[in-house]
Amino acid sequence: MTQFHAHRWIILALLLGAVAAVAGGVYRLGYRQALDSLAERSAADLALASDRVTTQLQVYQELAVLMADHPTLKRLDRAEARMAAQGLLREVADKTAALDVFFVDRAGRVVVAAEGVMGRDVTQSSYFHRAMQGALGTGYGVLQPDGRRAYIYAAPDFDVDGRVRGALVVVADVEDVEQTWRGSLPAVFFTNRGGEVFIANRRELLFWQRSAEGPGLSPPDGRQVALRAWMEGPHEIWDLRWSPYLPERALHQAVNLPQIGMVGEILVDVAPAQRLAGLQAAAMAAIVLALGAMLALALERRRTLAEANTVLESRVAARTRALSATNMRLTREVQERQEAEAALKRAQQDLVQAGKLSALGQMSAGISHELNQPLMAIQQYAENGEAFVARGKPERAGENLGRISQMAGRMARIIKNLRAFARNESEPMGRVDLGQVIASAIELTEPRLRQDRVDLIWQPPAEPVYAWGGEVRLSQVFVNLINNAADAMLEQEQREIHIAIETREGEGGARLAVSVRDIGPGLKEPEKIFDPFYSTKAVGSSEGMGLGLSISYGLVQSFGGHIRGVNTGDGAEFTVELDRWRAQGGTDTQQQDEVA
Ligand SMILES: Nc1ncnc2c1ncn2[C@@H]1O[C@H](COP(=O)(O)OP(=O)(O)OP(=O)(O)O)[C@@H](O)[C@H]1O
Ligand SMILES: [Mg+2]
User: Fold this and answer.
1) Which of 361, 421, 405 shows the shortest CA–CA distance to 542?
2) Is residue 359 pLDDT above 90, yes or no?
3) How much distance in Å is there from the Cα of 460 to the middle of ligand 2?
């Protein structure tokens, strides 16, 4: 968030900087251009004002030149002539509004004057000396005592042989000249050779003195006035705060006027130029700001998009991490599951083996009896045979030997079955002759059934019926079912077990069903019989671990078959359903036939 703000501020600062730079540049350029046109106009104004002053003074110059030759002024030695001359001069002065018109002789004495404002002696005046040299003399000054400013022209008067006889002097009233353009804008003033403001259209500037060093003026009363002056390109700018009638900041121009021996100067307000430049700069700033804002918006949009993208990417990364973690966990769980399955399989195998051994243990008494009987018989037959040989009756001895051989064969068959049953090895699945399997189960349980006087009703099939399974394991199932049925009927007089094979048609093809039915009391809790360690037989005794049916269930299921137990009303019936064996691909390589 803070990063976001910092970013914004930087963009804003950059934008403002750019705006300021552009506006500044535009202002300078616009100001310079405005000053150029202002300077052009003010130069024209100054020229106009200068022309006006010089032409107005020119009138007095021409008056002096013309009047110098006037015949009335030729002979002034007599009093009447002087009276007449004075009358003429007075008339001229009145008509031209000159302050004074007078004639001086070579000695500088005023011979005749209209007013006599200059006193009686002008020998000290420069205009007089100039006129005595035969040239037009000019001068200016302030008349005493009334303080009027006067501009003076002195025209020489020559006698017949061309020598300067005297001079006619015209004293012009400067205020009169100013009268026509006073107060008009802009401020124009004329400084004399001494650097003093002598003529001005602003009264307050009169008699100000040009500074000895640098530009600017200072007032005659010795006050210090502020002035800052600098060049704006070719233009001289004065920063002055002198009077309300003068601009605060002005363009200063000057023009030399040798005809009247003065310098004309003008001060033009630069405020309009500043305003114009300011307007231009403001307009440009607005444009740049608008553009900048648009740019900033575009950048902001892009940045927001990039941020959203980053967030999305980090989310995707987090999700990916979570998924791969889950994946790893699942893999681990699968592995654990597989290990558990393997352990279960091992346990099941152990259980099968335990079940078999337990069954063998139960049957051991019967089996030993079963083996003992033929053994006793063999002993008897052997003794008989020996006796017959001793008596010289070899054919009877041979008969006995034949019996012995029969007995031994029977024992071998019983032992073979027991060995196969007890063998703890994984037996391949394949074709199993159901009749054979049931026969071997009956053979294993026969001693016990005989001992307990249980009738077993069983009709072996005429032709072999083949099922899909493992021979030894399947016979274990039937051994268990027969033993359970026999156990159930121990308490009653009549004991019968019925075994039958039938063929059923199911969805997956033909199925074979073997039923083992008894006439005992039936199942007490049919839903529990396949649970491991569920037994109603005396706990701790050799009979009744509660494993027989649960092992059988697992075995039948491993063949793809099904086992279930129900009460028929007369007793219990167990049905083992198996797939019928079918030759695959025309060869029997996969199918094992152990019952050959
Ligand atoms: N034919 C039957 N009639 C009545 N009850 C039966 C029958 N077969 C099984 N049962 C009941 O089911 C129980 C479980 O049988 P199972 O064969 O699993 O164990 P068991 O016979 O008690 O012990 P063992 O592990 O030695 O076989 C028996 O204890 C019995 O109560
Ligand atoms: Mg049992």
Assistant:
1) 361
2) no
3) 24
Pairing relationship of beta strands 496-506 and 455-458 according to DSSP bridges: parallel
Question: With helix as H, strand as E and coil as C, how does 40-78 read?
Answer: HHHHHHHHHHHHHHHHHHHHHHHHHHHHHCCHHHCCCCC
Q: Which of 405, 443, 404, 400 is nearest to 421 (CA)?
A: 443
> In testing the pocket of ligand 1, which one of 535, 570, 575, 576 has its CB within 8 Å of the most ligand atoms?
535
Burial class (CB in 10 A: 0-12, 13-18, 19+), 114: buried
Three-state DSSP string of 112-169 = EECCCCCCCECCCCHHHHHHHCCCCEEEEEECCCCCCEEEEEEEEEECCCCCEEEEEE
Q: Which amino acid is at 489?
A: M
Instruction: Pick from 358, 537, 543 the residue to mutate for probing ligand 1's pocket: most ligand atoms within 8 Å of its CB.
Output: 537
Residues in contact with 480: Cβ distance below 8 Å, sequence separation at least 6, in sequence order:
355, 359, 548, 549, 551, 552
Give start and end residues of each alpha helix (H) in 391-470: 394-422, 434-451
Q: How far is the C-alpha of 593 from the C-alpha of 596, rounded, in Å?
A: 6
Q: Give pLDDT tens digits for 478-497.
A: 999 999 999 999 999 999 99
Which two tokens mark 186?
């802009």
Which atom of ligand 1 has the smallest separation from the CA of 535?
29
Helix (H) / strand (E) containing 315: helix 271-390
CA 335 to chain centre: 42
CB 543 near ligand 1, within 6 Å: yes
Over residues 376-422, the pLDDT tens digits come to 999 999 999 999 999 999 999 999 999 999 889 888 877 877 777 77
What is the phi/psi pair of residue 103, to 5°?
A: -115, 135
Ligand 2 centre to CA of 411 (Å) is: 26
Whole-angstrom Cα Rg for the chain: 76
| The token pair that represents 273 in the structure block | 């130029």
Are residues 344 and 337 in contact, defined by beta-carbon separation less than 8 angstroms?
no
> Which are the contacts of 456, defined by CB distance < 8 A and separation ≥ 6?
442, 449, 482, 496, 497, 499
| Residue 295: closest CA among 19, 11, 4 | 11
Model confidence, pTM: 0.48
Burial class (CB in 10 A: 0-12, 13-18, 19+), 82: middle
Q: Which of 549, 573, 575 to mutate to test the pocket of ligand 1 (most atoms within 8 A of CB)?
A: 549
> Which residues 6+ apart lie within 8 Å of 524 measured at CB?
536
DSSP string, 163-216: -EEEEEEEEEEHHHHHHTTTT-SSEEEEE-TTSBEEEESSGGGTT-EE-SSSS-
* 493-496-501 Cα angle (round to 5): 170
DSSP state of 426: P
